[in-house]
Amino acid sequence: RDARLARGGEQASVVVLSSHPFHGVLRKVMMFVGPKYFDEGEEALRRALRDIASWPPPIPGKTLRFPLLGGTFTARLPDASLLSGELQLSSIDGRTRLRQNLSLSAINGSVSGLLWNGHLFADLDIFLAFQGVIQHLWALWEMMLLNQPLMVMAPSPGSCSSGVAGLVSLIAPLGYASDFRPYFTVQDPEFALHANAGGEGIPPGLPRCLGATNLHFLRALEGFPNVLSLGQRSNAFEPAGMIQMLQSSSLAGRGGLLRALSNRFRGPSALIAQEEEGLWAKYQPVCSPDPTLISCMSPIPEGCTTSRANQMASANSAAIRRHFAELTSSFLEPFTKFFNPVEAERKTGEESPDVAAAFHGPARLPRFEPNEFLAEIAVCGPPAMVRQRLGLRWIKVYHRFVESENFKKWFEQQAFAARARIRRAWLMEREVMDIEEVIPKLSEIQLVDCFATVEKQMYAELESHSVDDVQADRFHGIVIKLKRDLQVLYKALPPDLQRSILFNKRRASFMVASAEGEAHGEGGAGQGAQGEPDAGVEARGESLLRSSSV
Predict the structure, then answer these.
(1) CA-to-CA distance for 34 and 39, rounded, in angstroms?
(2) Spatial distance between the Cα atoms of 404 and 370, rounded to a whole number of angstroms
(3) What's the mean pLDDT in 13-24?
(4) How far apart are CA 547 and CA 453, in angstroms?
C-alpha cells in the first residue's frame, strides 16, 4: 500500500514458469517464493534458483522431497501416461520434429487402441475443484467435448482457475483444442472483442472457456450461453480448510439440488443477488450422471483430520478421473480403425509379398468421410458405455463432435502419429529387403514401376533432411539403401530405357559412372545420326515412368 499513489497502492505478482507440466509442484514453489520475494527482494529469487537447480531429475509417478528457501515440501508427480511432452516425436519421424513437437504430446501408451495424448493439469484434484457440482460433471464433460462456450464464475481467482483447469483435463485423453483462460479480467485485450460480439457467439480464435470473478461478465459477455458457478472454497490448488469446504458439498443432501433446480429458471443472473453453485446452460446435454460413481464418492465426516480428508479427496478424484478417461476413450473407440493401415492392393502379375513390397511405399490410412462414418455407426451402434451414458440421443453427440475443433485437431494428431509409426515400420522392412531377389520376378513394366517408386521414396528421404537433421544418421542408411536399389533397378532395365532415364539430369546424378558414359557414347542403338536421343525411345521411357509414377 502507498498513499502517494492514485489507487492507494500498487499490484505486483510473482509468476513461476516451467517447461514441465507439474502444476502441483509449481503451485507450492509459488507459495514459498512469493512471500519471500516481497519480504527480501530479488535475493530470494536467487536463493530459490540455486535450490531448484539442486533438485533431482523429476520421476513421474513418484513422491519426492524438494528443498526450497530453507524449508522442504513433498509432492507426488503425475504418472508418465498423464504427462504431456514434445521430444518423443523425434524418435518417430525426424522430418517433422521441429514443426510438430509443440502441438503433439508424448506418446506414452494406449487406451482402447488409441494414443494417450498427455494433457495439462493431470495432477489437479478434480474432486476438490467440483465437489459442489459433482452431479453436473457429465454435462460439463459433454460441453467440453464439443467445444461449447463455457464461463466459470467463482469468488476468487484460485477458484475459477482450478475450475477451468479441471474442465480442460476432464475430457482426457482427448486434448482441448480451443483457447481457454483460467482467469480472465477486463484488462485482457481480448475482453473488448468478446464484449463487442454481443450475443452473436464466440468469434473465431477467441477463448471458449473462461474463468472469471467479475459478475459484470454475466451481462457484458452475452456470447457465453453456459455458465458454471463454483463455491467460495472450491479451490483445488489450496486444500487448506478443506474439511469445512466439503461440508457444504451437494453430496451432503438434496438441498443443493433443489436450490439448483429453482435457480435454473432464474438463469445466471441469480448469481448477482446471491452466490450459488450450479450450472446454467442453454445447451441441452444428453449425457446422464452415473449413479454408481456418485454413490461411491466418500463424504468427509465431521471431525476428520486434514491428512485423512486429503486422502479421501484424492481417492474420490482418482475415481472421477478413471471414470471419465474410460468414457472418453469409449467415445473415441469407433475412430480407431482410421488409424490402422489398409492393405495395399496387389498389382496384376505380382506373385509374392516381396514383389508387392518392392512396388509400394508405406501403407496408407483409410480415408475418413464424416457422413459415411455417421451412417455406419448409426447401424453398428456405439460402445456400451457410451450408449449407457448418452442414451438414445448418442448419435447427435457424434454428429456435433465430428464438426468440433477438438475432433479436428485430435484426428489430425492421431493420423500424423499413425503415419509416422507405419513409416517407421516400413523403413525397417525396406532396409532388410534384397531387391536383387525381387527383380527376376518382375516384368519390364513392373521394373519401370518399381524404379519410379524407389526414386520417389529416395527423393522423399532426401527432402526430409532439409527440414530437420536431428535424425540424419538414422536416415542416412536408408538413403544409401534406396540409391543402391535404384542403381540395381536401372541396370536391370533394357538399354533403351536406361538411356531414356539418363536424359533426365536429376536421375542421371544417381546412376553409376559407367552407365552415364554409355549414354554419352558415340552412336549406338537408340540414338540418331547426330548423337541425339531417338524420339521414340525417349517417349517410350518417359511415358512408362510417368504412368508408373501416377
Answers:
(1) 9
(2) 12
(3) 80
(4) 11
User: Do 191 and 185 contact (CB within 8 A), yes or no?
Assistant: yes
Closest CA to 313 of 397, 219, 232, 236: 236
Average pLDDT, the chain: 74
Neighbour-count burial for 526-541, b at 16+ CB within 10 Å, e otherwise: bbeeeeebeeebbebb
Asked if 91 and 421 touch (Cβ cutoff 8 Å), the reply is no
Give CA–CA dist 308/421, Å, rounded: 45
What span, in angstroms and rounded, lies between the C-alpha atoms of 472 and 409? Answer: 29
The grid cell for 280 is: 446454467
Extract the C-alpha cell encoding 338: 482410421
DSSP string for residues in 304-359: --HHHHHHHHHHHHHHHHHHHHHHHHHHHGGGGGGGSPBPPPPPTT--SHHHHHHH
> Which pLDDT tens digit goes with each residue over 140-193?
999 999 999 999 999 888 889 889 999 999 998 898 999 999 999 888 888 888
More confident residue, 246 or 366: 366
DSSP annotation of 6: T
Strand partners for 65: 74
Instruction: Give me Rg for the CA atoms of the chain.
Output: 31
Report d(CA 385, CA 400) in Å as an integer.
19
Query: What single string gives the DSSP state of each residue in 44-62?
Result: HHHHHHHHHHTSPPP-TT-
pLDDT tens profile 529-548: 333 444 443 444 444 444 44
Q: Out of 244-253, 316-325, 343-352, pick the least confident.
A: 244-253
CB neighbours of residue 400 within 10 Å: 16
480-485 long-range contacts, CB within 8 A, separation 24+: 481/430, 481/431, 482/430, 482/454, 482/457, 482/458, 483/458, 483/510, 485/435, 485/454
Residue-level pLDDT at 30? 86
Residue of 525, 537, 532, 429 lying closest to 481 (CA atoms): 429
Distance of CA 160 to the CA centre of its chain: 24
Find, among 42, 26, 175, 170, the residue nearest to 102 by Cα: 175
Half-sphere CA count of 4, side-chain side, radius 13 A: 0
